[in-house]
Amino acid sequence: MWPRSRTIVAVILASSLAWIDLCSVAWPREAAKVAQKSRVPRKGTVGCDRSKFRIVLDVGHTAEAPGAMSARNVREFDFNLGLAKRIEEKLKADGFAETSLLVTEGKAKPSLFKRATAVNDSSAKLVLSIHHDAVPESFLEEWEFEGRKSHFSDRFSGYSIFVSRENRKFVSSLNFARLLGLKMKKQGLQFARQYSQPFMGRYRRKLLDKNAGIYQFDHLVVLQRARMAAVLFEAGSIINRDEELAMSSPERQDMISAAVTEAMQEFCKLR
Ligand SMILES: [Zn+2]
């Protein structure tokens, strides 16, 4: 979610209001209300036909505007595509036959609106946007990797999950986000805590759930425009050198795919 240099400009434009600072909201009371309203109901009370439960896995960014660059100079888009394919395989193997990947082409700004249109044409029950995290440019440090000047930040790590209050299925989105966060936690993974901190400045977000690692990000285009439940998932950091290696490993990708699949099983039952 942190494209550098030229692409960051495009994404800022694309999200237009995406980076609006929400710091002035009365957070704790508001967060408590949200937590109460969207408490995850008991599972298994409603039937779930996995074979008909349509899911879109939206691969973040495009080949042309590939998002962040990892500490070892791999494009975020490549990480997103690899993980999304693995999640797709796992979901299909689990009976979610109507799972599809959404790979969008083109420049950053038009691609956001294109993908929102594609998602709304899909009649999916849920769209899950797959991303990998980095840091704002001011936090980057220099190092050399395989003889090439590169950038990293080992300061932060972890996954994070974003939902938009402007999504028309906000409560449903939050329910899935919570299930996903709790499954990630069950896998022993921790969420990225920096987004709620004042030093994040305009990138600071409201933490909606401190157990599951869910932040509010109202103006993300796909979440805002999707007519179904929509969640953006930063699966882990690729600018942190250790976590980048973990994110590249089949073991970590399997853990994350299992978390998404288990969350989906329970989310499907809630419908
Ligand atoms: Zn991204």
From TrEMBL:
It catalyses: Hydrolyzes the link between N-acetylmuramoyl residues and L-amino acid residues in certain cell-wall glycopeptides. The keyword Hydrolase applies. It holds the Pfam family Amidase_3. The keyword Hydrolase applies. Residues 116-265 form the MurNAc-LAA domain. InterPro entries: MurNAc-LAA_cat, N-acetylmuramoyl_amidase_3. PANTHER family: N-ACETYLMURAMOYL-L-ALANINE AMIDASE, N-ACETYLMURAMOYL-L-ALANINE AMIDASE AMIC. This is N-acetylmuramoyl-L-alanine amidase.
